[in-house]
Amino acid sequence: MKKILVFSLLFLFTFANNIFAQTKVSGIVIDKSGQPIPFANVVFKDSNAGIVTNEDGRFYIESKKTYTTIVVSSVGFSEKEITLDKPVNYNFRIQLNEAESLKEVVIFSGKTSKKNNPALDILRKIWEHKRKNGLNLFAQYQMEKYEKVEFDMNTIDSAFMKSKLFKGMEFIFDQVDTSRITGKTYLPIFINESLYDVYGDTKLKKVKEKMKANKTSGFEGNQQILTFVKDLYSDYNIYENHLTFFDKSFTSPLSTTGIDVYNYVLRDSSFVDKKWCYHIVFYPRRKNELTFKGDFYVNDSTFAIKKINMAVTKSANINWVKDIYLEQEFDVVNDSVFLLTRDYMMSDFALNKKEKSKGLYGKRSSFYRNHEFNKEKPVAFYKEEVNYMDKAVYDKSDEFWNENRFENLSKDELGVYKMLDTLKSVKKFKEISSSVMVLASGYIQFNHIDYGPVFSTFGYNEVEGLRLRTGARTYFGTADTWRLQGYTAYGFKDDKFKYGFSGKWMVDKKNRLILSGGNRRDVEQIGSSLTASTDVLGRSNASSTIFASGNNGKLTTINLSTFGLEIEPVKNLTFQAGFSYRTLESASPTFSLDYYTDAAKTITKSDVKQSEFNIQVGFTPQRKTIGFAVERDIVDSPYSAVSVNYRHGFKGLLNSDFKYEKIQLYYKQPIIIGPLGRSNIILEVGKTFGTIPLGLMSVIPGNQTFFSNESTFNNLNYYEFISDQYTTLQWNHNFQGRFFSRIPFMRKLNWREIIGVKGVYGTISDANRAINASGLKYSAPDKVYWEYQAGIGNIFKFLRIDFAWRGSYLNTPDTNRFSVKGSFGFYF
Description:
The chain is mainly beta. About 10% of the residues lie in helices and about 45% in strands. The chain has an 18-stranded antiparallel sheet that branches. Helix 1 (about 1-15) crosses helix 4 and helix 1 crosses helix 8 (about 425-440). Pfam families: CarbopepD_reg_2, DUF5686. InterPro entries: CarboxyPept-like_regulatory, DUF5686.
């Protein structure tokens, strides 16, 4: 959902100078033939302020100090000094000449050598000493943290300012600023500041952040924007071999494998904050890999990083992001130990990577101070709050912020706060804000009633024909303690109305004790997934997709009533218990759920009435959520999940037909394998004890749509395999373009390779076979059904195509040996 939110903002703002630094310079570095020189080093003379040109040879550099000269250099070229005639100098065209002698070469020519390179000797010293620097040296630590998160529209020009989109809001452009990183104009639209006390125990591997104050101004629904930015910019350790951003693994320039993917150049050495440091420039050996360009200063005795600047190369296989820029600064805080004191990250989100394209900046600045060490806290101290929201944290006065910020806001930043607060009362801005939230959530807001989701308005299946659906929910904000929602639908072919409604109430906020209940009467494709859902309003795409690759008429009319409670006593550990009553009957004359009710097989029944009690335990470590409401959104970051579900069916209770017990296990584990991409492993196990009819059996989920579905088997038809005990295992892996990027003619496509395999084993008891009167021949995958697939993702940045082959049961009639499925999404 957070990705959709950002893309919504991009679409709205894409189509629709003040000067604060003392010295600003931009331009392009070229060779004698006019070709750009990528990764050239540009610095202000006699300073540590520098930048590395991008793949197109372009650069922008600024400083609050006044400089009169820049120095430009690159391996294999003579160094060149450029005099600055004025404080602001744009669009320089700087030509470097090839070195005439070895003395003129900065260090090497062409790609840097992996042998006899002094930069690599220093890099090896960094590897040796990396465990002797940082917080991990101490058993316990604590410190203060100040964080500022910001969202900005960028590349603001006169045509953009005159757009009808901003009619009545022209005053906002008084706050246009210039980025010190890119030199582009930008306008803040969202700002959040936070103060934390941070505690850590390296032995327990526990970290706790306690928020002391929070201040926000900008879009309504800003909790979603804030969580999106903070999720993108998760904490990282520059000394690790791989750094994860946008769910992708980048090779760190300090990685022990960095020699294979980076060129390193020892530029010079100088004092940085009274510490003598080596200055090393790095840039990628190849295009399209997930790497950085930049430079770092490393202390000559401890070989600890003092300062590092790096930017993701434009050719990296990542969508919707034109630039990613990172800065970290380290100071000697305790004896000779270098600790992180400043961390800055900025991403430029855009629809394309053209130089002049408009987009959005997402920025996070973090500062750390007042470090203390080896003050032990009890284990219980690190227990995470499940749903804690202290309103006092959000009501701090301006005087409090003036006294407690790590750095004072500039006059212009204070003006931004005033502008954003004023903007909230402007009708046009409210309309833009509402449009963004519709695209992000799928709901149209009318005061405290949301209409939607609009993306479920249309559907089609063999029973209902064209299906129209309309619905609504209550919504008072991200801290709602209760919610009502419902829908009604109509099928033009069966001429019937369907409906569903539910309610939830969070009785205890601290432990998220939630009571829920509801009723749904609708047409459903039973067996679209093995692991049962407790959502009374849930509906599978199998019975409502617009297009299908086969007959989807084996549908069931379901009348389901539920009551349940849920509690989360420990963060991401949930316990659920509930009671349900349902009736099941065939929705089509060509499909039967009939079963025998006597041993002689003379009496049949076509409907099922069933009372059921269920209890479920779920654990989702590393899961991140948004808001404190009774319903929360899940942040789009990978996390493992495990759940165990027990169900007991009663016979006779409310005229219930069957007594049985069912137990199910679900486990999912994502695995990031450095530069090789990410794997997902999913295991599902289930068994039913007792005699049950077709409507209560475990149907192995087939897929007769044209769309990929992780929980289904691509080449199975609906009801092709049925079981009362089963085990499924699947593995899929996304190489994130690792191999396509090595093929010259495919490099620019930025396609991504995907492979996978999945299988299922299951059986059916003789008792369950004996009562089957549906006319459907029971078939269980008792010889293991499996299929394998290969796919291409990131086609046109939003399309994925999967090719699936059946690996067993090849001679089964009327089935698919091969299928092609597609899916759409916004992929980074």
